[in-house]
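Message: Study each token:
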Amino acid sequence: MLWLLLFSVVGVVGGITKDVEVSVRDVVTMEKSEGTYVYSTTALHHSGVLAMLAAAVAKADGIGQPQCIVVCDASGTVLGSMRMTGAKFLSLKSAESKAKSAASSGRPSNTLLDALRGPLAAATDGDVTGMPGGLPIRIDGVLLGGIGVGSGHGDQDIVVANAALAAIGAMTFDLAVYGGEP
């Protein structure tokens, strides 16, 4: 008797998670016919993270607003963070949520629909937020992660995040379009 196994498979095409039924015989056949189950990707280097943090701190100093800054990779893993002297300590948590939101969606954190903000925040233990200050890190169209900035007003957070993105040649975001509420 052939047993069927239920696997949760991340589809390589489109990155969609779906459930599929695969028999033991199919698994053996796939391994032989399809070869390898790996792919290449581009990742943010630690020197890029340091450059982003330095640029963000310089911009925050320049506008006179101490900030919390968090940089994460495309999987939401924090690669670097900084709480500037005088920044609100709880803003470190919101900056991390902003970075993870931007990395997960590939969009600025404040573009999350109002109707989804509460349910998604609850479902992710606060890892998803709709507050301004989270921007995706995208170079040559490739999503590398997210940066989150918090402790100032929404517009200040976005200006500081944009300075960090510009420091590594990443796509920046127009404040007139993606600006936060004061």
